[in-house]
Amino acid sequence: MKRYVTTITLLFFSSLLCFGQEADESSTKTTEGNQVFMHVDLPAEFSGGSIAENKYLGQNLIVPENVGDVNGKVFFEFIVEKDGSLSDIKMIRGLVPSVDKVAMDVVKNMPKWEPAFKNGVPVRQRMQYSIMVRRVKKQ
């Protein structure tokens, strides 16, 4: 019987990407004070930092065994709200449907993040985020 070892490599160090200098022009209409920014003074981050993020992803991102070998990233875009909650979560690019579903559920159920700050005030920030997934057979 083949045994599988699931290794989830969390490369969030390079997975949080923020682009642009101005409020996001492509977002839906916003009222004053509700602009969504891509460039901020202090970017949003997972509460507890990278160690807590790695722990959360490691405990919650369970790749189904019937998937076989998988190696790649699942890309997301979302807004970190002023209170740290995530909204407007979209998958930009996935791997395979069963892995994509698990990854989407993990992102949707993330605990609140630390919000972004611009000029000392919490602001909404649009972020791109990726999760590296690797599942290989044990020889």
List the topology elements.
Layout: E1 4-7, E2 36-37, E3 45-46, H1 49-60, E4 70-80, E5 86-93, H2 97-108, E6 113-114, E7 116-118, E8 121-137
Parallel strand pairs: 2-8
Antiparallel strand pairs: 1-8, 3-6, 4-5, 4-8, 7-8
Task: Summarize, please.
This protein has 139 residues and is an alpha+beta fold.
Protein model, in words:
This protein has 139 residues and is α+β, with helices and mostly antiparallel strands. It has helices at 49-60, 97-108, and strands spanning 4-7, 36-37, 45-46, 70-80, 86-93, 113-114, 116-118, 121-137. The termini are close together. Strands 1, 2, 4, 5, 7 and 8 form a six-stranded mixed sheet that branches. Strands 3-6 form a two-stranded antiparallel sheet. The model is unreliable at 1-29 (pLDDT under 50).
Task: Please state the overall shape, judged from the principal axes of the Cα atoms.
Answer: elongated
Count of distinct strands: 8
What is the count of helical runs?
2
In whole angstroms, how far apart are the ends? 11 Å
Class per helix and strand makeup: alpha+beta
Low-confidence stretches: 1-29
Radius of gyration: 16 Å
Task: State the major sheet.
Answer: 6 strands, mixed
Overall mean pLDDT score?
80
Order of helices and strands: EEEHEEHEEE
Q: Beta fraction of the residues?
A: 35-45%
Helix content: 10-25%
